[in-house]
């Protein structure tokens, strides 16, 4: 008998930016139990394309984008998508600097779950109001301006900075994947209130998520592209 | 303070003051070039980098900030291509789209898959080397004061302007302290204007890099430049430390007897500070 999972995800661009400028990406495939979130670095080149490649590789193609052989192939795919004739001088100079993104990928099986991540996009494993696992960052004060990221630059190693977690779970447990602004906000609130905000409720519709994000930003959440995916077992 | 969001509707401002007096024709130690040549090269490089910070690698440029350059020597006035006395500051997108000329260079670039391609690239030029006349720093500061006063009135909620003065000599038209303070007292709601000073190399004295006290500076002129320089706000202090400089709390935006690479670093931090995430360091997995 297969596991019963449902998932929902929402994403919102930085205040003052259009939806088209959102550099976060989220994707999931409930059937294969694979869920992923990536956060493209604003200062890098075409990071929204890189984020999309990473999450699709993980969920749609079922591969680990952090594995060196897969990563090489994805880097080539990025270059093929973004390089084209006739680009202005600044694009010609910017593209070789490459794209960069934080990434977190979750695989849920009947036997347990596994997560691999780089940077400050995080996973939370929840049971009721308790966080059983949080990572790669588990405290709000561990977020910094210097996150490790997975880049398109050839030969840049990913393995040193990969964070891995996993284990068993009970039916009814919840997993939350979130990009940095949201993850930090959730941890801050958890440290204060001793419980995680009811994220699933905020993800019921784009409007509900928009209201939540607007309120959270008023209460100090960083104004950044904001993305979350909730997986209910 | 110094925390206003920088975006396309709430731009920042960067104003460079560059010494173009006759003494800038002298060699800049360690560069094999004159100070004027090296400074023009540096400014063009920094402007190019600033454009890249506002680019996503496609046709778009995000106008995160406005930039202007005031040269001072025989004349005092805007020297950035595309600017004039009536429009001394222009958005970075206009800088990108309207260089004075494009110089062709052969450059090795990544092919995206681990190799390199030798390609002809076009390098934009906005400022040419110039050296003539004396060092009218007071007049240059006065011109800057008018520009940033007007800008602050028009952009009251923005991150305050950053003004970086680069000189190799002593002011020839009087003591610039009063007008420097006039600049520093100009403010937006987010803080006072940041005035930084860079004295370029030419003497055998060791450089003083972003000191937090005037002790050890070689003369009264150096101490004056220290006194009129603003303290680095926390995020710039952190970026300066990341760039490899030993800085202490209270460090001033001031480099005395600077080597060429220090000017590059200093201008780089200044330009990155006026883009939304420009001071964020990206790592590629080698750090955690």
From TrEMBL, chain B:
InterPro entries: VWF_A (IPR002035), vWFA_dom_sf (IPR036465). Residues 13-201 form the VWFA domain. PROSITE patterns: VWFA. This is VWFA domain-containing protein. The lineage of its organism: Bacteria, Bacillati, Actinomycetota, Actinomycetes, Pseudonocardiales.
């Amino acid at each position: 008998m297969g596991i019963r999972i449902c998932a929902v995800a929402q994403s919102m661009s930085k205040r003052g930016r259009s939806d088209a400028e959102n550099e976060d990406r989220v994707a999931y495939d409930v059937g294969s139990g694979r869920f992923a979130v990536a956060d493209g670095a604003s200062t890098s080149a075409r990071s929204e394309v890189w984020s999309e490649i990473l999450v699709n590789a993980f969920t749609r193609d079922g591969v680990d984008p952090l594995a060196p052989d897969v990563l090489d192939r994805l880097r080539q795919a990025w270059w093929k998508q973004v390089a084209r004739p006739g680009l202005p001088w600044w694009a010609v100079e910017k593209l070789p600097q490459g794209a960069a993104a934080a990434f977190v990928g979750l695989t849920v099986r009947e036997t347990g779950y596994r997560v691999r991540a780089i940077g400050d996009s995080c996973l939370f494993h929840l049971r009721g109001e308790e966080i059983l696992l949080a990572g790669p960052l588990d405290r709000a004060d561990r977020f910094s301006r210097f996150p490790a990221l997975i880049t398109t630059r050839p030969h840049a190693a990913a393995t040193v900075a990969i964070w891995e977690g996993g284990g068993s779970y009970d039916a009814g447990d919840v997993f939350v994947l979130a990009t940095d602004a949201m993850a930090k906000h959730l941890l801050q609130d958890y440290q204060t209130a001793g419980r995680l905000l009811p994220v699933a409720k905020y993800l019921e519709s784009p409007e509900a998520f928009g209201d939540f994000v607007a309120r959270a930003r008023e209460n100090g959440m960083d104004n950044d592209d904001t993305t979350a995916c909730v997986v209910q077992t | 303070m110094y925390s206003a969001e920088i975006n396309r509707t709430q731009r920042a401002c960067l104003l460079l003051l560059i010494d173009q007096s006759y003494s800038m024709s002298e060699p800049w130690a360690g560069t094999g070039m004159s100070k004027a040549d090296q400074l023009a090269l540096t400014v063009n490089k920094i402007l190019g980098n600033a454009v890249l910070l506002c680019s996503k690698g496609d046709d778009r440029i995000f106008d995160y900030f406005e930039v202007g350059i005031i040269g001072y020597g025989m004349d005092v006035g805007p020297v950035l291509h595309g600017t004039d006395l009536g429009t001394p500051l222009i958005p970075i997108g206009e800088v990108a789209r309207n260089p004075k000329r494009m110089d062709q260079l052969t450059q090795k670039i990544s092919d995206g898959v681990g190799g390199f391609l030798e390609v002809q690239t076009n390098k934009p030029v906005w400022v040419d080397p110039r050296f003539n006349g004396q060092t009218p720093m007071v007049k240059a500061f006065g011109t800057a004061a008018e520009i940033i006063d007007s800008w602050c009135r028009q952009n009251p909620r923005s991150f305050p302007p950053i003004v970086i003065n680069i000189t190799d000599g002593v002011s020839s038209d009087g003591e610039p302290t009063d007008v420097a303070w006039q600049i520093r007292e100009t403010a937006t709601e987010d803080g006072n204007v940041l005035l930084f000073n860079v004295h370029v190399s030419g003497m055998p004295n060791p450089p003083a890099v972003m000191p937090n006290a005037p002790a050890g500076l070689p003369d009264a002129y150096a101490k004056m430049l220290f006194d009129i320089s603003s303290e680095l706000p926390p995020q710039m202090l952190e970026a300066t430390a990341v760039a490899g400089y030993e800085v202490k709390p209270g460090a001033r935006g001031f480099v005395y007897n600077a080597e060429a690479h220090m000017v590059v670093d200093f201008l780089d931090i200044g330009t990155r500070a006026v883009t939304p995430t420009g001071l964020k360091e990206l790592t590629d997995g080698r750090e955690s």
